């Protein structure tokens, strides 16, 4: 087993340095207009944490608001096949790894096919509020296809938010066009702010009709990314920065990246784990570069708190993803199926449905606020004011504990303390229940995936996995079936503190967990 590259001591030292908010140099964006230095202003923020015009842009965007991602869906259309750079974690046979898991291939579409698909999905999934272009190459290396799709959608589906993702090389020259098409959300993948580090990630870029390599290539890319980010901030476009955490190459450096993007007005910073397997055929996969463990990823994310606001609920979607983050309904909307569908784009019906979804989101928020008071009391009584534990949750959406253990293909991970139940990530797992019976061979890998958690909250669980989880020191909990997640996690935490206080149990720290490397979710 390889040792961890990250020194937690170093990260803690850097975290202190970040505690002083960096003065914003650019106008616009959340960080510079009321949110600077607030760690709550961002993916876990609410209407009190940010100006109302920013809240309007994020409240139903599942990537920009953690709360929203339990209720609202997004979709991608794969209209952008070309790319203008090479990343060492990408194999061009597959989708862009800056926003997708490696090894996934999407069905490529023309702009006309893409628009038809968006209207079909919008008529079937009224809570789909955002259309993103995230590959399968780079959205801005395919400007005609990207903007033709966006232009048509502005006319035909005016209530859908437009979003795109780019490596940033072509960004400065495209900012006018982005604003012209009312694209309010742009993701830039920024893995470094030091070209020497960049040269270890990017072997070449295609620039001014020729291939540029080495540190010079990384320098050009870095300058374009910074300029593009500053220009978008100045124009009031919300930006999210994706960074791929590559142990031993840019892990501690991402703290510097976080600081630099915050200075330039980035709204969110999404630090994603490198997914690296030889079978993906990438340079990193073939040379044995590993991805981070769950604790290594969390350590870097935690060290960045106090800097640019963090997104931790990213699912590294496919370039043709459809549905809530974490679910994939793309198979329901293949071209041949769309041909047979009766597409009725009814904006009033969509709006009415979304109002109901918004009411549910608000109810979840209120339940969380109420449960916090109980958790606070219990932790004080137990003398555990500083206690923080992780819990895993099985959910099908709507922000509730509403999934059977055996049906989960991912667990959402919450860090619970007397102050909050904070979403800190998710773990993909192989399905335990296969056609009505439990697959015991899967259990060790599921336990590995949530091994850092003290409890797993589910709507139901069978006797066999229940016993195995207990033996591994993870408490299976069914008591909060169909409750809102944060309320359930905080109520369980209050109970846990009570049991520690009474001596019924002794609090024990947990170990590390493994981030699943497979490219595709279980069936
Ligand atoms: Fe798509 Fe990206 Fe827009 Fe979201 S995804 S273009 S910002 S609508 Fe979201 Fe998917 Fe993570 Fe991207 S979960 S990979 S962050
Ligand atoms: Fe691959 Fe995306 Fe990098 Fe292009 S930008 S090389 S498509 S990961």
Q: Please, could you describe this protein's structure?
A:
The chain is α/β, with parallel strands linked by helices. Strand 17, helix 15 and strand 18 form a beta-alpha-beta unit. The model is unreliable at 1-41 and 518-523 (pLDDT under 50). The two termini are 30 Å apart. The protein contains 16 helices and 18 strands. The structure holds FE(8)-S(7) cluster and iron/sulfur cluster.
**What overall geometry do the principal axes of the alpha carbons give?**
globular
Low-confidence stretches: 1-41, 518-523
User: Largest sheet, order of strands side by side?
Assistant: 10-9-8-5-4-3-1-11
Question: Any idea what the radius of gyration is?
Answer: 22 Å
Any ligands, ions or cofactors bound here, and which? FE(8)-S(7) cluster, iron/sulfur cluster
Give the helix tally.
16
Summarize this structure briefly.
The chain has 523 residues and is α/β, with parallel strands linked by helices. The chain has helices spanning 8-18, 29-32, 52-58, 111-124, 143-156, 171-180, 195-198, 214-234, 253-263, 283-286, 294-303, 335-339, 347-381, 443-449, 463-471, 485-502, and strands at residues 73-76, 85-86, 128-133, 161-166, 185-189, 204-207, 210-213, 238-245, 268-273, 310-311, 322-323, 389-393, 410-416, 421-428, 433-434, 437-438, 455-457, 475-477. The longest helix is centred in the C-terminal third of the chain and has 35 residues, at 347-381.
